[in-house]
Model the fold of this input.
Amino acid sequence: MKEADSSVATALPTTDSVTGFSVVGNPTQKEELERDLQQKREQLLLLRRQQEELERQKGDLEDLRRKHEEYARGRTEMIEQLTRGLVLLEREQIEAQRRVELCAATRQAFRDGLERLQSIHDDQWTSANVRTELSQALGIVENSRTELQHACARLDCLSPKQLSAEEKEGEGASEFVRYVRLGFAASLPLIVAGTIWLVVFLITKH
Done:
């Protein structure tokens, strides 16, 4: 009987061997689920980071495209405007040069005409040469008038309206001087009387 018990005891596995086999060789379903869940979380986090990086690159590309469009549009606009401005400036320069040359020629013509008019000495005319001198003088006057009319037609600064304005300004200044002189003349007796009274007062006081 004892031999049978010992044989049975020898056939049965020990408790330690059973416990080690169940822990190491057979992981529970819960641990597998936790491991799979952790992997999915890590994959999701990686995908989110990749999405953020793609969004950042997308924003950079959109900003670059917007700047490139702005550059292309501004470059085309400024090329057109500067080209148009150069053409206008060249025309203005040519016109200004023409006006300068015209003004110089007109000034010389006016000087010549003024000298011819001032060279007329009508106080020296005699009955013998009055007809000849008068005809020549009338010719000089008419030539001067024609030259002035041509200049007025070519230069705005010599227009009749401008000349009239200059003449009115000169008349206004002359009128002001005349009024000042009249006022001084009217006040002169009072000034003289006041000065005499002051001298007499000072003498009698001493």
